[in-house]
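We recall that each integer encodes one residue's backbone shape. We quote one record:
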Amino acid sequence: MSTAPEKSDTTSAPAPAPAPVPPPVATGAPTDAVEDKEKAVVPVPIVNKTKEEPVTKKASSGSIDRDIALAEVEKEKRSSFIKAWEDSEKSKAENKAQKKLSAVSAWENSKKANLEAKLKNIEEQLEKKKGEYGEKMKNKVALIHKEAEEKKAMVEAQRSEELLKAEETAAKFRATGTVPKNFLGCF
């Protein structure tokens, strides 16, 4: 009976050994992951381990060490794959953010240029209107000056007329020898 449990231990040992070994993970780029998994799923050494273990007890302890080493290698592969994936995702996020930032900068620059062009156009229109209004004001000033000259000429003509009339009236008073009545009314 003691030999039967030993046989069951040797036969049961190969069954648990493959279970703790995690599935192989690809170490290449994410696009090659499917191919690597397919390649890693079919390794022959796993089958050889089960055949070698029942041969001797030393081989079984060696296969356990080898299984542990393989598990460590698989763990390192997995962690390196995860690290590569993480770096890839981070670089994608950085590139995406950089692309969006450059798009926002381009949008901002185009809007600024558009507004500056509108401002320049408005300034040109204002300068044009300023010139037109300036010309109108100059014309109005010239017209007012012309009217003022006409009024001055009329005042001068009236003054000349009144002076001439006063001289004629004075000559008439001298000739007749009479004194003007308006003159006495002032005192």
Summary: Residues 57-176 form the longest helix (120 residues). Confidence is low (pLDDT under 50) at residues 1-19, 28-59.
